Amino acid sequence: MGGVSNRPWRASVAVAALTALLVSGCSGDPERPTPTPSPVGTSAGPSVPAAPPASDPASRASALVATLSDEDLVGQVLMPYAYGDSATKVSAGSAAGNQALAGVDTPADMIAKYRLGGLILVGFSADDPTKGNQETTNVDNPKQVHELTTGLRTAAGRLAAGSAPLLIGTDQEYGVVTRVTDGVTVLPSALAAGAAGDPKLTEAAWRAAGAELAAMGINIDFAPVADVLATRSAVIGSRSYGADPKQAAAQVGGAVRGLQAVGVAATLKHFPGHGHSADDSHQDLPVLTQSAAALQSGAWPPFTAGMDAGAMAVMSGHLDARAIDPGTPATFSHKLLTDVLRGQLGFKGVVITDGMNMPPAMRWAPGEAAVRALNAGNDLILMTPNVGQAYDGLLAALRGGSLPRTRLVEAVTRVLTMKFQLAALPAAQMSTLNTPAHRAAADALAAAAVTVLRGACGKAVRGPVTVTSSGGRDGTRATLTAALTAAGVQVKPSGGTIVHLVGYGDGAKDLSPGAAVTVAMDTPYVLADAKSPTLLATYSSSRASMTALAAVLAGKARPGGRSPVAVPGLPATTCGT
Known about the structure:
Elements: H1 11-24, H2 57-65, H3 70-76, E1 78-79, H4 92-102, H5 107-114, E2 118-121, H6 142-156, E3 167-170, H7 190-196, H8 199-216, E4 220-221, H9 245-260, E5 265-271, E6 287-288, H10 292-298, H11 301-308, E7 313-316, E8 320-321, H12 334-344, E9 350-353, H13 366-376, E10 381-382, H14 387-400, H15 405-422, H16 436-449, E11 451-454, E12 465-469, H17 474-486, E13 497-502, E14 517-520, E15 534-537, H18 543-553
Helix pairs in contact: 1-12, 2-15, 3-14, 5-6, 7-16, 8-9, 8-16, 9-11, 13-14, 16-18, 17-18
């Protein structure tokens, strides 16, 4: 599942082809015919088997599509969120939220009424840069999530398309965007994996984490982030694997292979590259000013590496790539999604919109936005702000001709093919959650990430130690304190050698001038202003990262990471090459 190329593209022809595209100025006419869909996760080769076996996912999808009504087809391309932590029993407040969103009381009712192809589980934490479009939360702990997903699948099983399992997704990126945090193995951030620089460690960690997602009933993860951190983007930040396209590409490939080996679809996001703008698409429409050639060489290698690793999905971003389709968000750009992503880059899988409840997508009414997104080349409409309006708009456009039936059938066939592919592997049991083996995979990745950017390599701090931090990090301080104590370092409430922690959103004002050691638990840029004689970076505040930091501070581990982004005035590491 995880090792088949999704793209029959060759780098040597991409720039020429893209140049020809820009010169031709193709309009992206929604009436243009669309090709017969290829199976998800396969390359478009010179020949296709004439009689694939009956169990082939693409054949099953095509056969099922032929039996579906217009209403069933439209429902399969919608993947909204819902209010409530149970499929069938919700609070009065959640029922009111679902009524406003979809005219129903419960998530199960929403699935039944609109014949949905999927549902996204949502939630946020204080340091989450995506919290602006998370209207509610319906994840709490693994047992609750498992019961919720079981109920959702029961409801979907009654649909005409019920033989294909419901898509249940979430944004489990690890780091600042992590929906399920309690009772599961929590990996360090993507930037930490970039600092570790070992795709095999990344793959092993994501395989462990993916097995736990599958056990809870989640079969598509909106991860990994394939954006290259070319700017100091606060919304992407440590969600990216780093600033070097080639190194980030290797990490993305590892994450894809790990996830998909255990039956969870990986989603590369946010095409054509959110890290190439410092602006936040949760607030406005970021502009990518780079040339098409610069995007190809600087933004797209992690996407193509993920495709080569077999990624089943790509998420389109609300991004204005001026060199390719100026003024049009990529989510609605036929040039970017159909001509470039599918044509030049050769992606054959499922294209999913970013949240349609974000400002760049809400310039149109939900129905019109859904039609525009599907005509541009998306196959799944994510998080529409009004399910009924999106559904009615798609159905009216299908019957009126502005949404070609071939385009809708192509999208649904891709979605169903992916569903049947995912159903081929049995999910792990709930007993596998947070096991020692899974924690060991996370620990190994976190340990390899710790970086020393100033000071001696691997020198133990002089005890006793006092752990301080910027505001609101009591839990992280407690985790590090426990890890230091376990490593044999005495920790005092005050008066010791100060180890100061800074994290997401912190700046120069959050540093401690008297700290002997300053540790960056998110992007390391803030360390450029730190005066401490020793500067370290973990890029993450996870338990695994704090345990790894404690081992370095105790002199029991060598900090072998290299900063995957440049910090002014500091080397990538002082530990040599």
